[in-house]
Automatic annotation (TrEMBL):
This is Flagellar basal body rod protein. It comes from uncultured delta proteobacterium HF0070_15B21. One of its GO terms (biological process) is bacterial-type flagellum-dependent swarming motility. InterPro entries: Flag_bb_rod_N, Flagellar_basal_body_rod_CS, Flagellar_FlgE/F/G, Flg_bb/hook_C_dom, FlgE/F/G-like, FlgF, LlgE_F_G-like_D1. Residues 100-163 form the Flagellar hook protein FlgE/F/G-like D1 domain.
Amino acid sequence: MSGLTSLVQAGGVLEKKIETVANNLANASTVGFKEDQPSFREVLSTVQRVVPQSDEENFLSHEYLDQYVGMDKSAVMVDEIGKNFTTGRFRDTGNELDLALENEGFFSISTPQGERFTRAGNFKLDSQGRMVTQDGFPLLGKKGPIQIKGNGPIQVDENGQVAVEGTVLDQLKTVRFRNQDQLQKLGNHFYAPIRSDDVPIPSREIVVRQGILEQSNVNTVLEMSRMITATRSYEMVQKAITNLDSLDEKAITISRVS
């Protein structure tokens, strides 16, 4: 593996790291947002491993990238962008349409593309009296979209039962997944299972809180630290590529003269 190839691959890894951290920081105030975490995998097997041939390759394979892969490797690449599903901070709002899930689980949402799932509980009422997301997609109950009837206050208990003036209208369809880490992130803060057999599982253990919102679980101080580290390392990669390119030009010039 050439020094330039190693440098380009490392630059791609760092670019993805910077992009991921930037997205996390941009969503630090987004309700229910779960931070992304890139994971890496080895490009070459132990048998195929190439000994670093330059100081630049040695730096990339042993000093910086070890922080992410945990062992010496000749080169790494981004394997996938994982999700950190730890619960975010809770904020009291007093708004009867704001809901939060105290433990693992998701609200079920109806969309034109099918059922989607979210942790963002900042709902509102549309013109038809349905509880919907900020983008207008209906929140689902066991009977279908949650339809509010009556002008009294809306009560949602910890089991997800929705009532108006003491009359229970429906119960929220809150679900879990066996392979939560395998959910794919979509737009509008939605998730969906990657595999068709990973079906949502209704659970009575999911606790609903009314008048509370779950904030993003992004640690801004940690993400800023990651951004600084990745940016500095990317600058070192760029410098190493420039130096290597300069050496190649000198070698070509010398070979022509000789």
